[in-house]
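Risk mitigation, structural track. In case the binding assays with magnesium ion fail to produce interpretable data, a predicted complex structure has been prepared as a fallback.
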Amino acid sequence: PVREHIRSFCIIAHIDHGKSTLADRLMEHTGLLGERDKTAQYLDRMDIERERGITIKAQAVRMNYEADDGTVYQLDLIDTPGHVDFNYEVSRSLAACDGVLLVVDAAQGVEAQTLANVYLALDADLEIIPVINKIDLPSADVDNAKAEIEEMVGLDASQAICVSAKTGQGIDELLEAIVTYLPAPKADPEGPVKALIIDSWWDNYRGVISLVRVMSGTMRAKQEVRFMATDKRYDILETGVFAPEPRKLDKLEAGEVGFLICNIKDVVDSKVGDTIVLASDGESDPLPGFQEVQQMVFAGVFPTDSNQYADLRDALGKLTLNDASVTWEPETSDALGFGFRLGFLGLLHMEIIQERLEREYNLDLITTAPSVKFRITHNDGTVEIVDNPARFPDTGDIQMIEEPMIIGRIQLPEDYLGPVIKLCQERRGIQQDLTYMTTTRVQLTYELPLAEVVFGFYDQLKSCSRGYASLDYDHGEYRRANLVRLDLMVNGEKVDALSLITHKDNSFFRGRDLCVKMKEEIPRQQFEVAIQAAVGSRIIARTTVKALRKNVLAKCYGGDASRKRKLLEKQKKGKKRLKAVGNVEIPQGAFHAILKLD
Ligand code: GDP
Ligand code: MG
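Fallback model:
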């Protein structure tokens, strides 16, 4: 089709408001998904995306739509993740679009991520169509959703399209709105070739695949291209689109989104945000790229069976081919042996990576509690960045400690203000603003230490607001804080992998609560296990796990052999994710006890 008939857009929304389901319906109504493809959220391809019902990677898909007036339009849709950890995926996708569908759940209304995404779209100068979804729900309140879109987002909601991505109601009207209200790309197919890399990943058969938006010119096989950031040159082997399966096309023109396969062996050579030009073209300015992703949360990852160290290293090598947002380097722990320290975008990202490592690479792992990057100024004035509590220096040699802050925006119905403010204060938050967005909805702005947010803040926010509060945040500055290292000792031995950093004023309560939690997590053993918490040389709390009295098999003594075997098997299974530290077996749960404190 001609350029006037191309529409390139993405769907943005708060998590769970129905982006992926809406993408399914659009594909179905344009004939891309048949009856047999009716798995929900088609674009969530990874097993883990399906099970958790969340989108992790942005996906692009091309559809053809015949409008009511008979014109055939080409629609390039990008589905994006909604969780804060993956925000950088959203900003990349927006750079590749001319318009967005802003989806708002009719029963939930506008939430924190809705606003954050709208701001990104407005910054990128994109046309926005408000879409009110889930109108089939009995609790749907379209008028309220409209009012919130007008009052909180500041968009004209009279144009909003009401749909049910579940039943398909309103989808035809939405498709018409897309071709009517969203602009065609302004790109020039005759200009010099310039393309923006939206994503790149490793494919076992094809090598690196780059998802690009061509901003100017026309790309086709056999052209020699140059990747500006790395200054590497490659010949294009193939161009194509996802519809939704990969389909080879002889060219990609300005304004189009599609894939590019060159003979690239390493994803770092196809950097997200980089600009691709023709190797023969002279110097030109790169397209405005994206912010480099920053790892915010760090944790040690160790094989429970030390023989799996080499396997873990290979798995990390392969996994990071696909997900360049994880960093890793070797780490040694007195307690856990050889492993790696990984950097993640956030907690959800951390969980997902651990799960993928275990599942896709068949590993059995222990991850330590997450930590942030602290900045430590020593007495001699030297500055050190420490992302591992076990490496935190003793108080004697510290002149100043600084920790990263976030600016959190919390949206909530006013009924929950009390408990939410209390939670923020307990987490050392400093209130910066409290605004009524509507007569009943409030936006609270808090400066909070990232280290506190990392320790289960999100779950607690949800539970103290019955799920109604939502959070979005930006990274803030480093601030000075009175932090100490809290050590845990198991039968008198310090377990380095259990150390954590906490504010001095909270250290006593944290230490006490942790000992209690640990006691629940560590199974009874043949002997008594003492758990102690200490700051420096001072013991601040202690609990004891009593010795096991009964032999588990005694019960079935003389009894039926298959039952006995089953019991042994069950025990063996329960052994997974247990690590022997000294002579005490410590399960994974104990390493994350800090995340479970209330
Ligand atoms: P995303 O996180 O924005 O991609 O949301 P999903 O598309 O994964 O949808 C979240 C949940 O809402 C899923 O359980 C969907 O089945 C459900 N859902 C999506 N759209 C609708 C709708 O129009 N009506 C109803 N009743 N449920 C919907
Ligand atoms: Mg999704």
